[in-house]
Structures are given as C-alpha cells and as structure tokens.
User: Which sequence fits this backbone?
C-alpha cells in the first residue's frame, strides 16, 4: 500500500493550493459490455469513438506523475484483452500502488487469467477485484438484463477466491449497486454473500446520476441506511474483515465508516457536506481520451488526443481551473463513493473523525482477542 508520506505530500499540495496532479484516476478503458444494467451510468457518456490504444495509453501515462490509485473500469473492463498491459503501464511509469477493477463476472476464464497476469506482472501491487452482485438468483439477472449472470458471477468469485490463495496481494470484493430495484432484497443478498459465497468485503454504491432506467433512482434512504448499517456492523464484528491484506486495514475501514456518514447526510439534506476534489486530486479519463473532473459532470476538460497525450496540458489548463472554481462555488455534491473517499481523507475535520473511528476499530479488535 502507498506510504503515508505520499498522502502527506498530496495533502501539502492541496492545502497550500499548489497545482497537483491527480492521485486517483478513474479510467474507463472500454465502453463495451455484455450487460444492460438498469442502473448503468454509461448511457450519456458513451462516446462511440475509438478506444485509446496501448501506445496512446503509454504516452498519457508518461505525461503523468505518480498515480496512487487507478480504477480501470468500463463497460466491462475485462473485455479489453490488453487489460494486464494497461495496468502494468501505470505500475511501471506512475508507481501505482493500488488498482481496483470492477467486473460483472461474466467471462470467468478471461477474468481469472487476466487477474493472474496482472499479479505476476506487478508483484508489489495491491489489486482489488470487485465482482458485482445486485440480488440473489434471477433478481440479479433481471437488474443486469443477462440470463444466467448470477451463476457466472458466483463461479467467477469462487475461482478468484481460489487464485487468491496463491496471491496475498489480491483483495477480492463484492460490489453492490443499491437501486430501487433491489432495496427490498439487500438483507437476503448480504446473507447469500457472507454465508454461501464466503465474501469478506462488500462495497456498496448508491445509484446516482442519470441511469439507463430512471426508475432505478429514488432509493428509500431508510433502506439504504439499514444496509449500510448491516455492512458497518459486519466490519465491526469481523464478518466483513475488509481489506485485511492491507497494512492499514482498520484505517481503510474507518475511512469507509466516516464516508458512509457523509453519504447519509448528503442523501438526507441534499447539500454538500465536504469539499469535492474532482479536477485536483481525482480525475476521470474516458476510453476515447476525453478528460473530465468526474464522469457525473457534463464539463469536459478536453481530449488527450488533441494535445499530443500531454495530461498536464489539460489538467493545468484554464478550462480545468474554471471547472474547479465552479465545483467549489456551486457547492456541487453527490454520493460518488470514490471521490468522497478523497474528500474524507483530505478534509481536516473529517480526517479527525477517521482517526477516532480507527481507534474504536482497533479497540474492538483487541477486545475480540481477549
Ligand atoms: S453497469 Fe457496468 S456491467 Fe452494467 S451495463 Fe453498465 S458497464 Fe455494463
Ligand atoms: S460533487 Fe460529485 S458531481 Fe460534483 S464534481 Fe464532485 S464528484 Fe463530480
């Protein structure tokens, strides 16, 4: 995992208002997918243009500084046959320490083989794979519009769990997208995941933005919070031991608990709770080279193909400066978990709260040992 000094370096950049390159990059490496999920956000962001090639990605990566966290996403990221090569470019050029890849789990063989290639090519990398589950059995298949996907995703999870026995740097997670279509079945899903599949980390995402099926949004806050509480209790009672391979697993879980409180407050008040660092500490690259502060805002910074793949040229441009000012002045807010992690970590008031939660988790762990 990244060293604490790295975080301090980024914090210094941020707090003294120096220009900083992103430490967190969400990279939509492809738009292609076999599923048609009701909650999919890609709809409006689909560019229909050619994906960046390996040679183009190499140039972009060389123009970047250190990227601590990379999220290659999509579409279904494992549809890119060169996914292991993409990760290794960032590992090599940008000293990327953590990579998280979501997958719908459809292509078991291809996924397991690519994950093993990544682990072998990047031996010091903390790699997290999040297999998506939104319901048990047919409920999952209906939400994702792929018959048989639930069984395939379960098989993929099991095979990755076998692989994990040989690769301690692999963290295997489940991602649950909470929408109006599954809000009444989340407890059933939790029990399937923890009791039948043996899942030890569940990341839940609240449907947001402009999903393919608009009826996905409007989740009952009480049901969402009840599921969040179930996950928090799972972390506290050690059912969900979280990123247990990480040196700072309690710390990661503490950040997640505080982030959840922030999200609950946002859903309840519909107001910004913490500053957003999209466009400074976090950025989003689409598969055709379009660069955004985040994929939810319809505010493109530019396209990397048009600036000879020079990331800094766009990142430090007047256009991005303008967008960042807008984000700040408008009090822009949303429940985007990844970007809220940055907000929680790099805002002094919430960071203090993280430290308190961390102490509490440590204390619980000690009590459990006694
Ligand atoms: S949410 Fe993911 S898996 Fe579902 S259709 Fe969209 S890109 Fe594909
Ligand atoms: S608050 Fe949300 S929508 Fe606004 S800039 Fe940040 S991540 Fe994007």
Assistant:
């Amino acid at each position: 995992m990244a060293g604490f000094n790295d975080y301090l370096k980024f914090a210094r950049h941020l707090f003294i208002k120096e220009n900083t390159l992103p430490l967190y990059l969400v990279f939509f490496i492809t738009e292609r997918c076999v599923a048609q999920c009701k909650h999919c956000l890609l709809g409006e962001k689909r560019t229909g243009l050619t994906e960046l090639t390996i040679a183009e990605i190499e140039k972009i990566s060389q123009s970047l500084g250190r990227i601590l966290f990379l999220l290659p996403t999509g579409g279904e990221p494992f549809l890119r046959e060169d996914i292991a090569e993409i990760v290794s470019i960032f590992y090599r050029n940008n000293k990327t320490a953590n990579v998280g890849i979501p997958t719908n789990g459809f292509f078991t063989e291809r996924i397991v083989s690519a994950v093993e290639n990544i682990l072998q090519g990047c031996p010091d990398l903390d790699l997290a794979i999040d297999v998506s589950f939104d319901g048990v059995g047919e409920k999952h298949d209906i939400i994702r519009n792929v018959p048989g996907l639930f069984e395939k995703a379960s098989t993929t999870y099991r095979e990755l769990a076998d692989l994990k026995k040989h690769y301690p740097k692999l963290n295997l997670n489940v991602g649950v997208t909470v929408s109006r279509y599954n809000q009444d079945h989340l407890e059933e899903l939790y029990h399937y995941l923890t009791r039948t599949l043996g899942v030890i980390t569940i990341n839940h995402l609240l449907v947001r933005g402009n999903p393919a099926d608009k009826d996905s949004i409007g989740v009952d806050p009480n049901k969402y919070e009840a599921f969040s509480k179930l996950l928090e209790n799972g972390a506290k009672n050690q059912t969900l031991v979280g990123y247990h391979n990480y040196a700072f697993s309690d710390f990661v879980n503490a950040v997640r608990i505080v982030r959840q409180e922030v999200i609950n407050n946002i859903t309840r008040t519909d107001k910004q709770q913490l500053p957003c660092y999209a466009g400074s500490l976090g950025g989003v690259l689409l598969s055709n080279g379009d660069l955004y502060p985040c994929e939810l805002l319809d505010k493109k910074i530019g396209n990397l193909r048009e600036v000879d793949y020079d990331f800094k040229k766009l990142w430090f441009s007047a256009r991005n400066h303008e967008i960042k000012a807008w984000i700040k002045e408008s009090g822009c807010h949303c429940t985007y978990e990844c970007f809220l992690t940055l907000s929680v970590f790099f805002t002094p008031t919430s960071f203090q709260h993280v430290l308190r939660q961390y102490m509490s988790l440590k204390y619980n762990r000690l009590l459990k040992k006694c």
The chain has a mean pLDDT of 90. The chain is about 45% helix and 10% strand. The beta strands are 24-28, 69-73, 98-103, 126-132, 170-178, 202-206, 282-285, 290-292, 302-303. The radius of gyration is 19 Å.
